[in-house]
Structures are given as C-alpha cells and as structure tokens.
Amino acid sequence: MDDLATQIQAAAKKRARAKDAFDRADAELRDLLVKGRADGIGPSELARLTGFTREWVAKIAPASKTA
Would you give the DSSP letter of residue 61? Predict the structure, then answer.
C-alpha cells in the first residue's frame, strides 16, 4: 500500500505541474491571439496558424471595437 500511495502522490504532483504548464501556455496563446487580432489578422488566419476553429479564435479574440 505504501508503494501505491507513493505512486498516487507522484502522479498527482505530475498532474499539477502539467496543469500549471498548460495554463501558462494557454494564457500566452490567448494574449498572442488578442494581439494578432489587434494587428488586423483575421480569425481564419489565426485559426489556420493554431489549428483551432475560427469560431474559437473569434470568441477568445473578438474584433477590436473602434470608436
């Protein structure tokens, strides 16, 4: 049981590190998508670059509103 408990704890720590890494990468990508849209890159082009759908890109980085 001690070996199993150790394995479970190690797996939980590994998962937590992976989640943190994913969250950082996701935030970086979202920031870059917003910057891309602000620079006039369309959601279709950003979708092509990322492999995500155009709709997802448009939801994350909507067109900037001009006054």
Answer: S
| 3-state secondary structure at position 48 | helix
The answer to whether 22 and 46 have CB atoms below 8 angstroms apart is no
d(CA 12, CA 29): 26
* pLDDT values of the chain reduced to their tens digit, one per residue, 67 residues: 799 999 999 999 999 999 999 999 999 999 999 999 999 999 999 999 999 999 999 999 988 765 4
Residue with tokens 């759908």: 53
Q: What pTM does this model have?
A: 0.80
The residue length of the chain stands at: 67
